[in-house]
C-alpha cells in the first residue's frame, strides 16, 4: 500500500519530519524475532488501509535501523509512536487491539467536519460562497460548539444574503467568544442589512404599494431583491406573478435562475420548486 513505508536513514527525514507536517504518521518499531510484533502488525495494516489519505504507517525494523530506534529511545518491542509536525505526540507499547488503537488515533486524525471546513475555506478564498456555504453549514451542524465553524457559517450566510440566519448565529455567541472576528462579522452584517434596503428597492416597494396589482412592478422588485440577495422575497413575488400569468414576461426565467443559483441543499430551492410544480401539474 502506498501509505505503508519502510523507514531507513535515507527516507527518515522525508517521512517522519517532512510528511508528518501534513499527514499523521504512525511509526511501528518491530523486529523479525518479536512474536508480539507479528500479533500487532495485522491491526496496524488494517488501520492504514482505512485511512489511505490521512495516515502513514512508517515501519522501523529495529535490527536493521538501530540508529533510528535509538533516537526514539525505544526500550521494548513492539512500540508505536504517533507523529505530527515532526514530533511524537502519542503512542503505546505492547499489543493493543485494533479498536484500542483506533480510539487513540481518533484523537489526532482529521475529522470529516474538518475536511468540509477546509474545502469550504478554499472555496471562500476564491469568493465562491455558493459552494462554500453548504460545506460550512454541514461542519457547523456536526460541531456547533466550535467558534471557527459558527463564524464561517455566519460569514457565508451574510455573503449569500441569509441575514436573518446570520443574525441568529451571531446572537448565540457568548460574551467570552465575542472576539475581533465576531466584531467584524457583526459590522459586516450591519452593512449588508443596510445594503439590502437600497434606494432602488425602496423606490420599487413604494411604487408597488401604490399599484399592488402591477405584475411588471412585482417582477422589477423581484429582480432588485435578488440583486441584494433577498432571494425568498424575490421568489415569493415571482410566484405571485406566475400564479396570475405563467407566461408573463421573464418571470419564470428569473424564478428558475434564482433557484439555480442557490447553494446545494438550500431549503428555499426545494420549497419553491415544489410551489412551481403545483402550478404546472
From TrEMBL:
Keywords per UniProt: Disulfide bond, Electron transport, Redox-active center, Transport
InterPro entries, per database record: Thioredoxin-like_sf (IPR036249), Thioredoxin_CS (IPR017937), Thioredoxin_domain (IPR013766), TPR-like_helical_dom_sf (IPR011990)
Keyword Protein biosynthesis: no
Domain Thioredoxin: 1-110
Keyword Zinc-finger applies: no
GO MF: protein-disulfide reductase activity
Database matches in Pfam families: Thioredoxin (PF00085), TPR_19 (PF14559), TPR_20 (PF14561)
Protein name: Co-chaperone YbbN
